[in-house]
Design brief:
- This protein is α/β, with parallel strands linked by helices and 320 residues long.
- It is built from ten helices and 16 strands.
- It has two domains: 131 residues, NAD(P)-binding Rossmann-like Domain (Rossmann fold), CATH 3.40.50; 167 residues, Dihydrodipicolinate Reductase, domain 2, CATH 3.30.360.10.
- 35% of the residues lie in helices and 30% in strands.
- The strands form three sheets. The protein has an eight-stranded mixed β-sheet. A six-stranded parallel β-sheet has the order 3-2-1-4-5-6, with helices on both faces.
- The radius of gyration is 21 Å and the shape is globular.
Length: 320
C-alpha cells in the first residue's frame, strides 16, 4: 500500500518535507494556515490542501509530519496523536521536558509512532561514523566536539543553543548510546537582551566520555564540524565543506616505560554512500508507521529537550 503523509507547515523547512515526500510518491496533503501560500504550493503539488489541521485530521492519512514554528510543536503534535495518527515532529520536539514527556506517554497510550526530526541521524556520514565507533576501530571513546557556526538565521523566540544544538545533541547521544549525565553551559548575548547568540556547552557521558558543543549565529563563515577522539584513532567530518569527507586520522598517544609517545600514520578518507538525509529520514518514518521506531523515537527527542532545558538553566545561572 502506498502510504500517504500530510505535512503540517508550508514554511521553508515544511516545503522541504513537501518536496521530498512528493518525490517519494507519499505526499497526501498539506496544512498551511496562510491561504495564499497554500494555494501556491497546491499549484506545484496537486494534493489535498487545508488551512486548518482539524480538517486534515478528518481525512484518512497514514501519518503526519510537523514543520511549524517550535512554539507550536506541542499543540499541533498532541492533536495529531490524539486523533490516532503517527507523527514526525521537527526538532526540538517541544520547548519543555514536561510537554515532550507528555507527548511520548500519549503516543504510547494511543499505540501510534512518535518520531523526532533529528535528521542528522539519517545522514550517511553520521551513520558511517557510528559504524566505525561500534566496530571498535577507534578504541575507547575519549571525547567529541561539534562546531555549528554561521551568520544567521537569528531567532527572536529561542536562543542559538535551542536553534542549532538539537542536531549535535542527538548525534552525540546516538554515538555514545546514552544521554549526557552532566551539563555545563556558558554563553553571550549581543543582539537581543534575552537571547544568547553564542554558547559553549560541556557534556559528560558515562565511562569518562566527554564532549563540547560550540554554536553561534554570529560567525564569519559556515562550519558544521564534528571531531571524534578515541584511544586508537580520530575522525573529523565537516558537513559544510565542499568535499564532505570523513577523515580517519591514525593518530594516538601510547606510553613506553611511562613516557607518552605520539604515534602518527597517514590519514585516510573513509568512503560512504551519498544520500539525502531528509529523504532517508522520511523513508524511515514511512516504513515504521506500523512498527517500533528505533532511531530518533519520541524518547530520544525527550532526552534532547532535557539537555536543551538544562543547558538553558545553566546559562541563566552563569549570567547572574
Amino acid at each position: 500500500m502506498n502510504k500517504k503523509i500530510c505535512v503540517v507547515g508550508g514554511g521553508k523547512w515544511g516545503q522541504n518535507h513537501i518536496k521530498t515526500l512528493y518525490q517519494l510518491g507519499n505526499l497526501g496533503g498539506i496544512v498551511e494556515a496562510n491561504a495564499k501560500r497554500l494555494n501556491e504550493l497546491l499549484k506545484i503539488y496537486p494534493v489535498e490542501g487545508f488551512t486548518e489541521l482539524e480538517e486534515a485530521l478528518e481525512k484518512d492519512f497514514d501519518g503526519f509530519t510537523v514543520a511549524v514554528p517550535a512554539p507550536l510543536h506541542y499543540e499541533v503534535t498532541k492533536k495529531i496523536i490524539e486523533s490516532g495518527k503517527s507523527v514526525l515532529v521537527e526538532k526540538p520536539m517541544t520547548l519543555s521536558t514536561e510537554t515532550s514527556r507528555e507527548l511520548v506517554e500519549l503516543a504510547e497510550r494511543k499505540g501510534v509512532q512518535l518520531m523526532a526530526g533529528h535528521v542528522l541521524l539519517f545522514h550517511p556520514a553520521i551513520r558511517k561514523i557510528k559504524e566505525i565507533i561500534d566496530s571498535g576501530e577507534l578504541g575507547n571513546l575519549y571525547y567529541f566536539y561539534s562546531n555549528r557556526l554561521n551568520l544567521g538565521t537569528v531567532r527572536t523566540e529561542e536562543n542559538v543553543f535551542w536553534s542549532f544544538a538539537p542536531h549535535d545533541i542527538s548525534v552525540l547521544d546516538y554515538f555514545v548510546g546514552h544521554p549526557a549525565e552532566k551539563i555545563v553551559s556558558k554563553g553571550s548575548k549581543f543582539l537581543q537582551e534575552n537571547v544568547y547568540d553564542v554558547t559553549i556547552t560541556q557534556l559528560d557521558y558515562p565511562n569518562n566520555v566527554h564532549a563540547h558543543i560550540f554554536v553561534s549565529w554570529l560567525h564569519p563563515f559556515k562550519e558544521q564540524r564534528l571531531v571524534v577522539i578515541g584511544s586508537k584513532g580520530m575522525i573529523s567530518f565537516d558537513d559544510a565543506s565542499i568535499d564532505k569527507e570523513i577523515k580517519f586520522y591514525d593518530k594516538r598517544i601510547h606510553f613506553e616505560k611511562g613516557i607518552p609517545v605520539k604515534v602518527e600514520n597517514p590519514t585516510r578518507i573513509i568512503p560512504y554512500e551519498q544520500k539525502q538525509p531528509l529523504t532517508e529520514e522520511l523513508k524511515y518514518f514511512i516504513e515504521h508507521l506500523d512498527k517500533k521506531i528505533e532511531i530518533a523515537d519520541g524518547r530520544s527527542g525527550l532526552e534532547v529537550v532535557k539537555v536543551l532545558e538544562e543547558a538553558e538553566k545553566k546559562l541563566r545561572i552563569g549570567s547572574q
